[in-house]
Amino acid sequence: MAALKVIVASICFQGILAQSSSETTVSTAVPSPSAALDSPLPSQVPDPPTQAWCPSEIFCAGPLLQTVNVAALYSDPKTFVDKPTNKPAEDVLFDFENLTSGNVTEGQIVDFVDADFRGEGLELEALTLDNFNEDPPFLANVSDSLLRAWAQTVHGYWTQLIRTTNSSVLCSGTACESSLIPLNHTFVVPGGRFREQYYWDSFWIVEGLLESQLYDIVNDTLQNFMDELDTIGFIPNGGRIYYLNRSQPPLFIQMLFRYITVTNDTSILTRALPLAEKELDWWQENRTVNVTSPSTNKVHEMARYAVNNTAPRPESYLTDYLTANGPDVSPPLNESQRSSLYAELASGAETGWDYTSRWFSNPAAGNSDLKQLNVRNTIPVDLNSILYRNHIIMEQLYSDNETAAMKHHDKATSVREGILDLSWNSTKMGFYDFNIASGTQNHVFSAASYYPVWSGITPVEILRSAEDAFKYFAPLNLVLKRYNGTFPSTFLDTSLQWDFPNTWAPHQYIILQALRALPSHIADVTLFALSSNQSSFNLLPADQLGISESQLPSQTLLSGVNATNLGHQADINTLNGTVLNGGNTTIYEGWSQTLQRELANRYFASAFCSWHATGGEIPGILPRLSDAELNVTQSVNNTGNMFEKFSSLDIDSAGRGGEYTVQAGFGWTNGVVLWIASVYGDILATPNCPALLANTA
Ligand SMILES: *[C@@H]1O[C@H](CO)[C@@H](O)[C@H](O)[C@H]1NC(C)=O
Ligand SMILES: *[C@@H]1O[C@H](CO)[C@@H](O)[C@H](O)[C@H]1NC(C)=O
Ligand SMILES: *[C@@H]1O[C@H](CO)[C@@H](O)[C@H](O)[C@H]1NC(C)=O
Ligand SMILES: *[C@@H]1O[C@H](CO)[C@@H](O)[C@H](O)[C@H]1NC(C)=O
Ligand SMILES: *[C@@H]1O[C@H](CO)[C@@H](O)[C@H](O)[C@H]1NC(C)=O
Ligand SMILES: *[C@@H]1O[C@H](CO)[C@@H](O)[C@H](O)[C@H]1NC(C)=O
Ligand SMILES: *[C@@H]1O[C@H](CO)[C@@H](O)[C@H](O)[C@H]1NC(C)=O
Ligand SMILES: *[C@@H]1O[C@H](CO)[C@@H](O)[C@H](O)[C@H]1NC(C)=O
Ligand SMILES: *[C@@H]1O[C@H](CO)[C@@H](O)[C@H](O)[C@H]1NC(C)=O
Ligand SMILES: *[C@@H]1O[C@H](CO)[C@@H](O)[C@H](O)[C@H]1NC(C)=O
Ligand SMILES: *[C@@H]1O[C@H](CO)[C@@H](O)[C@H](O)[C@H]1NC(C)=O
Ligand SMILES: *[C@@H]1O[C@H](CO)[C@@H](O)[C@H](O)[C@H]1NC(C)=O
Question: Do the Cβ atoms of 378 and 436 come closer than 8 Å?
Answer without folding.
Answer: yes
